[in-house]
């Protein structure tokens, strides 16, 4: 998933500052049981985005039960004694709303988008399943088959997904980013309903959750409703996962994946910092700008040079997200044009970063990059769901949504010299993992 392009890159929030549009400041408070609530009032339409985020994801799993965070997400829709047999989604739909959930390496979140009059009902439903989820073995057996099929069609039958999975498994040895969010198939095949129940009992508690509400609401009223429905739930003793620090990489790593595909491809992933300290971690802002210089708009360097000008690639990309509980990767990738080898394209991708390291970027290019990126993100300011996502991601990362404005200021201060400096500093082959997709004929798939 191209997280930086979809939402979680830092620079998209520049729109608010440079275009004079100020978002309503979010208000936050903590219930007596430790549950955090963040509310942003947005009165443009009588609708609300309601989300409950749990600060637990696949990085909190252990070998043998990989994928359990995602499996539990599925089980959360199966019902409670009060709302049995998957009735929650039917209730939401009947009230004119829609609901869903998603699991990430760092968190799991559940959401509803509903008319504002139905917000209290959503809180009732979420509080009920936070506390009273049922675990019927028949439900689990059905859902584990669904998850295994999901793994098949989203990963096992998708060459690019297999490459990404192999890349991360090679780049990370000790850190649990090593395994995929969906889990290894063998772990899914041997998972039990008790594994899901144990995960729920360990992590699903108000003091490990953050509620985010964005829309046509009053913060004081949301607080009263949160206290009414969630405030009575008892907190749990949270036993954090042990730190699994990734050892320093001391040499280039390579992996090849053979899969049915029309074209080969190459993906290069460099170990770079994630944002942990907003004031001190200045390199992350320059790295985000560098990613945008390479692949942040239609005429960015990778596509302009390698696709249109020299025609050595038919597709290229760059991806970096500094918002992460764990370590970060800076990824560049490409699919070679006919007659161009993967090795040649890899060389050219590296050369684009070397060009920035050697020659830098001009102030004009820096400003053009920011302007282009802002333009591409304007529509997201009209999305209440997008605002709720932004708040939730920053909260789950440990940075906190209150730091967003400061991050904007830090990004505005990035200079061409800083971009050139990070291009020199972080792109050594010693921190590089390369994954190649090697196409095979469809008849070779089962060999």
UniProtKB/TrEMBL annotation:
Peptidase M16 N-terminal domain location: 36-180
Domain Peptidase M16 C-terminal: 191-373
Superkingdom of this protein's organism: Bacteria
GO biological process, one term: proteolysis
One MF annotation (Gene Ontology) recorded for this entry: metal ion binding
Enzyme Commission code: 3.4.24.-
Keywords from the UniProt entry: Hydrolase, Metal-binding, Metalloprotease, Protease, Signal, Zinc
Signal peptide boundaries: 1-23
Required cofactor names: Zn(2+)
SUPFAM superfamilies on file: LuxS/MPP-like metallohydrolase
Family: Belongs to the peptidase M16 family.
Protein name: Peptidase M16 inactive domain protein
